[in-house]
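Appendix B, record 7
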Amino acid sequence: MTLVTLVLVVALSTNAPVGEAAGDNYYIVPASSDVGGLSLLVTGENCPLDVVAVDGYQGKQLSFVPANDKKGVICVSTDLNIYFSTCTSCPQSTWFVTTTGGVLGNPGSQTISNWFKIEKYEDAYKMVYCPSVCNYCNYPCSDIGIYQDQYGNRLALTSEPDKVQFQRVPS
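Structure tokens (predicted):
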């Protein structure tokens, strides 16, 4: 078994603290009861794994690593990686866009698909792919939402964001 690391960059638009500490473990759960928490699923080849929302399940634990880790808290509009620490048969990998296979850290053009943001959305948050770790890179910004197919509820780039909350995993 090897460790799978899934990375997602998170940012909120006002640089205000989300109130969560970087490096702690969290669940990303729906703000409504529409779908469940985030997990990993084999949908094609054995690796990389796809990121899915699983009904009736709080999901797998994740950690947040800001691009600039000096503040020690997760802030809105601040790029960061989100990674799963889960034992699987896949080699170590990082969340990029909607599957695993990215790289933790190393902000720049080579890792542009690894970076996402968290933005305030109504009474909760939403995840967004709109990284600012590369000033000269050209990429389309998009919300992260749920796409339903034969495998279930996959995370995908969408115009309809998935409204989420963060629950700290008890120590």
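Remarks on this record: DSSP finds no helices and 16 strands in the chain. The longest strand covers residues 142-149.
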